[in-house]
Structure formats: C-alpha cells, structure tokens
Design a protein that fits this description.
This protein has 318 residues and is mostly helical. It has a domain of 217 residues. Helix 1 packs across helix 11 and helix 2 runs antiparallel to helix 3. The two termini are 18 Å apart.
C-alpha cells in the first residue's frame, strides 16, 4: 500500500484515540497545560471583543470560528510529543521549534485557514446586522430588534446576550444560520487540514499530495472522520466558552488528533522526508520519521520510533 493511501478507520477508534491523547497529556502535563493556557488567553481576548462592542451573542460565533484555525496549533503539541518519544524532557522550546521545521506548504495552508476565518467573521457580522441589528440608546424597544417595553436605555446593550433576549426570533434565526454556515466551513477545514498538517510536519508529503491524502481519508471514512470532526468542534467551542477548560481540552484533543492520523497513516517502514517543500530560507530540518529515537521505558515503538503504547497496555486493534 502506498504511504499516502489511508488505512480504513472505524467509529470505535475514537474512544481509543481519546484515551491515547489523555495518556500523553498525563505524561507531560506541565508544558501541555502551559500551551493550553496560552491558547486560552488568546481565546479570552477574542471573546471579550463582542462584549465591549455590546453584541455578546457574537461571542458564540467567534468561539465556533476558532475551530477554523485550530489545526494551526497542532504542530505545537506534536513538537512536545516528538520530544517525549525521543527520550527528551518536553518544554516550550520543543513546541515553538516545531514551526521552524515546517515548510512553505504549511504556511500556505495556514493562510487558507486564516482567510476562511476572516470570511466567517465577516459573513457572521453581516448576518447579525440583518437578522438582529443593533439597539441604539434612547430608541423605543418596540422598534428595535429585541422584544420588550421601555427604551433601549433601560434595556442595556448587553441584554442581547441575556436569556430573555432568546425570545427574539431574529436572534434565534441568526444563531441557527450562523451555526450552519460555520459547520460547513469547519467541515471544509477538517477536510483539507485534518490529516495534511501531520503529514506536512513529518515531511511525508508536500502541500498538494498532503491535502489530497487528507481529502481521500475523509471521504473514504466519512462517518468516523465527521464524527471525530464534530467532537473536535464541540470540544473547542466548549473550551472557549469555559476558558479554564480549554487549557485541558486543547492538548488532549491535539494528541488525540495525531493518534487518529496515525491510524490512517501508520509508518510500517523507515521513511525519509520529502525535500522540495521547505523553501530557500528554511533551516535544515530534523527527520521526524526515520531519525534515531530512543524507546520509552515500558512503551512500544514502531519503526518510526513513535511510542504507540506509552503505558505498556495491550495492543489495540481497530
């Protein structure tokens, strides 16, 4: 089988990859929580913007939109994981250095994800303006989008996010259509980036073959991959809406995503990096697959040195 021909995935594999992600988190909680905390701070800063603008309902949209750029954080956690399976003590330096190893293909993919995020925020803002609008202080509430009595000065702008505002049909329609639009964009990102980012990071493909392999994996395993994508989105949205939880959710889901990728693209023989992608300004890159990797105590490593059983558990077969 070609190295970029995905293996079949099964729905019951999701429980396995979540368990493996949790075990990797427990093996290096310090740097994992630190990275998760930094992502949490970024999320909190973004979520505060709608509250300052008086449109708290948009916070849910921004939280969902973060799923569009979530794959860009994956190399950070994979850098920690790679350091661990090499027998080193993981720290933030390993995470940050993972970006330096990535070639131009990854940054092109990052640009596409960033563009989709801007499209998402712009479209959601337009949708909000048409369906909900804005409440102007002193304007009679009867003429405003929110139902109620009195004037907008007695119904503060922040009331748009209050439970009583949910009675507004415009707000309900906005959340429904915006969620549907966001789900389609998130599915598109998962389609092109879910498996291509690890392939790019390990140097097993350049940008076009990596995206092609990712698309083939998703369409060839539609139920498992869409279910997994839904878990990723719900986990990220929950983490952003409950910020302290994100410090835990982000690393566990990142490690789990890599395990899911490994089931689709296992390494059965020593491999070499694909060379044309890095670009002229790139520094020499470490061979993530075939380089010498120290086995972990109690763990099993495949020919790539990937610790597939960090706690010496019985092998799992899908």
């Amino acid at each position: 089988m070609n190295s970029l021909s995905p293996h079949p995935l099964r729905l019951n594999a999701i429980a396995h990859v979540l368990g493996a992600g949790w075990r990797h988190f427990r093996a290096m909680p310090g740097p994992s929580l630190t990275l998760g905390g930094l992502i949490t701070l970024l999320g909190v800063a973004l979520l505060l913007i709608p509250f300052f603008l008086g449109v708290p309902a948009v916070a849910l949209i921004i939280a969902g939109g973060m799923a569009l750029i979530a794959p860009l954080f994956l190399p950070l956690f994979l850098g920690l994981r790679q350091a661990r399976v090499q027998g080193e003590r993981p720290h933030l330096g390993h995470a940050l250095s993972s970006y330096r190893r990535l070639g131009t293909g990854f940054w092109a993919l990052a640009g596409a994800c960033g563009f989709l995020l801007l499209v998402w925020i712009t479209d959601a803002g337009i949708l909000y303006a048409f369906m909900v609008g804005a409440v102007t202080p002193g304007e009679p509430v009867a003429a405003a989008p929110l139902a109620g009595a009195g004037t907008a000065s007695t119904l503060d702008l922040a009331a748009a996010g209050a439970p009583t505002a949910w009675a507004n049909p415009g707000l309900r329609s906005f959340v429904f259509w915006a969620s549907l639009m966001g789900a389609l964009l998130a599915a598109g990102v998962h389609l092109i980036a879910g498996f291509s980012v690890p392939l790019l990071q390990e140097g097993r493909a350049t940008i076009v073959p990596a995206i092609h392999a990712s698309v083939r994996t998703v369409f060839g395993n539609l139920i498992p991959t869409l279910t997994w994508g839904l878990i990723l989105v719900l986990g990220l949205v929950l983490g952003f809406l409950l910020p302290p939880l994100m410090a835990l959710v982000a690393p566990v889901l990142a490690y789990s995503q890599y395990e899911f990728y490994r089931l689709a693209f296992p390494v059965t023989s020593p491999a070499t990096r694909i060379g044309p992608d890095p670009g002229p300004a790139s520094t020499p890159q470490q061979d993530w697959i075939s380089g010498p990797i120290a086995p972990q105590p109690g763990g099993n490593t495949n020919p790539a040195g990937v610790d597939t059983n960090p706690e010496n558990e019985p092998p799992w077969k899908p």
